[in-house]
Amino acid sequence: MAGSTVSEAGLHVAVTGASGLIGTALVRRLIARGHRVSALVRRAPGRGEIGWDPEGGRLEAEEFEGVDAVVHLAGENIGARWSRNRKARIRNSRVGGTHLLSEALSRISTPPLVLVSASAVGIYGNRGDEILTEESPAGDRERDFLADVGQDWERAADAARAAGVRVVHPRLGVVLSPHGGVLDRMLPPFRLGMGGRLGSGDQWLSWISIDDAVDALIYLLFADSLAGPVNVTAPEPIRNRDFTRILGQVLSRPTLFPVPAAALRLALGEMADSTVLASTRVVPRRLLTTGFRFSHPDLETALRHVLGKERSAKFPR
To answer: What are φ and ψ of residue 22, in 5° steps?
Structure first.
């Protein structure tokens, strides 16, 4: 681990995936807190940006001279039916991109002090009611594509680790925001009163509000005692049927239209069993034991916040 610690004074932070759902919110928050941000971009870089081509394997290590920290969020969206080609793109965008970045950081004379390199709770696979912490083993590589990719994704940062960079892998749960991701896709049918549980509804969902996800990523930049995997999920995972019920309550809509597992498998193929039907009951033990404070620890509070449905103090429940 690097011998120095990250100061909370203005940092120079390089961010991949800066235009994505989490990256956009993260960059905004970092700048508001007085940090300098350099986004990694695939197009010709503008002032203050860093150009890279993860597909072509091109990234100049010298671009990171003077960078204090790196947050790596880039990766192909998994939220569409998986073809063989799409699965290859998902893997390559995560494993190949992380390897390219890690190798570049390892080659400079003074590498950044910390690399926060995204991972996901999919690394645990479908685990039923088992409570999963950072000490839990990863899922079965042979049976679960996301568990397989997740393990290679985290190992792809080994070059930076070997160079003395403190590497943290935030294993992100489902990030709740109306501006993208799972919740954004759920809102239209739920607002029409056509929402319902998925499959049996018994599967566990590990979620986190967009605000808490961003705060956790920033926390990891400065938490010098943390390296390796850190679950970035709310402390209260929830079953799909309860998620459905609470979302309906927040929107004041009925949730009477369940979607059978067979229909999901027909529509989504292999992806259904690895995502919407998978049960992953993750708790953020390392965040909690090191003092991170969640703004939205329970689902109703989180949904009301991100959807602008907070209860008035004048009319409490």
So the answer is: -75, -40
For Cα atoms 161, 5, 102, give the angle at the middle one, nearest 5 degrees.
25
Q: State how far the Cα of 206 lies from the Cα of 234, in Å rounded to an integer.
A: 7
Under a CB-based contact definition with an 8 Å cutoff, are residues 198 and 229 in contact? no
Distant-in-sequence, close-in-space partners of 293: CB < 8 Å, separation ≥ 6: none
Q: Is 104 exposed, middle or buried (0-12, 13-18, 19+ CB in 10 A)?
A: buried
Q: For residues 11 and 34, give the distance between their C-alpha atoms in angstroms, rounded to a whole number.
A: 8
pLDDT computed for residue 79 by the predictor: 86
To the nearest 10°, the Cα dihedral for 160, 113, 285, 32? -130
Report the percent of the chain where pLDDT is more than 90: 94
What is the Cα–Cα distance from 195 to 113, expressed in whole angstroms? 46
What band does 113 get if pLDDT is binned at 50, 70 and 90?
very high
According to the model, what pLDDT value does residue 1 have?
A: 36
The reply to whether 270 falls in a domain is no
At 168, is the secondary structure helix, strand, or coil? Answer: strand
Distance in angstroms (rounded) separating the CA atoms of residues 51 and 237: 38
CATH of the domain at 54: 3.40.50.720
Number of domains in the chain: 1
Q: Is residue 193 a contact partner of residue 220, using CB atoms and an 8 Å limit?
A: no
pLDDT in tens, 227-272: 999 999 999 999 999 999 999 999 999 999 999 999 999 999 999 9
Range of the domain at 152: 12-175+207-233+281-294
